[in-house]
Amino acid sequence: MKIGVPKEIKIGETRVSMTPSLCRRCVALGATVMVEKSAGIVAGFRDDEYRAAGAILTASAKKVWATSELILKVKEPLPAEYGLLREGQTLFTYLHLAAGAELAKVLLHKKILGIAYETVEGTDGSFPLLKPMSQIAGRLSIQIGAYFLQSQHGGSGVLLGGIPGTMPGHVVVVGAGNSGAHAVQMAAGLGARVTVLDLDTRKLEALDSEYRGRIVTLMSNPANIEHEVADADLLIGAVLIPAAKAPIVVSKKMVARMRPGSVIVDIAIDQGGCIESIRPTSHEQPVYKEHGVIHYAVPNMPALVGRTSTLGLTQATEPFVAMLVQKGVPRALAEYRGLAKGVNTRDGKITYDAVAKALGYA
Ligand SMILES: NC(=O)c1ccc[n+]([C@@H]2O[C@H](COP(=O)([O-])OP(=O)(O)OC[C@H]3O[C@@H](n4cnc5c(N)ncnc54)[C@H](O)[C@@H]3O)[C@@H](O)[C@H]2O)c1
Fold first, then answer.
1. pLDDT greater than 90 at residue 362
2. If you take atom 41 of ligand 1, which residue's CA is the nearest one?
């Protein structure tokens, strides 16, 4: 099996899809690994470490794409990479196709076997390759929100924890899954007032018993959302309907009623976002103001902490990469149902229902 590891080119991306340690394992299992020079450098992995782990290094991204059967990436291919994809190649990466109609067309046209990290399932039906990045994005969302709440950054000047005698900031988290729960943890740790809303009562019950009255849990319905959003200093969008376009849970009208200088971090932007006034931003230009409210919607937030994110991501992908190398792609997909659930495109067709529906193919 020839594996290619290109350097990520998305703005501000710092992660790499393979560490030297994972490279060593793949080589030991019989794979040939080609890594683009300096692919891991920002995450703290040097070229000589990959070389020592058995990788072939090249300065040419073209060569990596042209000679590999399996391309291992972090983010979805960007337009500059569309021409490099080879017909019939296997691509294992985050794809987020529900919000990527153009990319979907390319993958179908080139008959790419597209295995999306975000829909690979564990034996319990969870999403083990989405989880670590969601945890990181959830934790980051609070420190990012706290930063943009500062007066010098255009924010309302609220300190989330307050001080004795002042009201702490109010953090409202919509979605109590992996990213939401980690946002709650950081916000509560800072001493903010925290309200979390979800449709799933089990998620609310778990947080309620963990925090024992320290946070407020609410059913996600329009009345509760409207009421809480109007009082939020920091609003976190953290909902997910697996592989589907994110539902809009906060309307523009609700955003318009927030206090000026309040902050929205819509983590769900990679699936289109769950706030009506949101549009994707980038690490170069992470925020814009609408209705006087700061909007942050970077689809690759974990790139802010490339080292931790690379380690978190690759410890989750390693067992699946090892399956692909050991068994070969067809057998690995036939034998491991959870890995097969990751297949979003195959032989020119969208094979994942929610993605097909979101893109109008079903
Ligand atoms: N921007 C980034 O850099 C980044 C990084 C990692 C993950 N993400 C994205 O964050 C999003 C959330 O991921 P996750 O792993 O936390 O998902 P998750 O499945 O663990 O949690 C999502 C939660 O949303 C809830 N939900 C669904 N509809 C809802 C509604 N109408 N109101 C309230 N809650 C609702 C679900 O019940 C669930 O508890 C995904 O889109 C994921 O791709 C973004």
1. no
2. 268
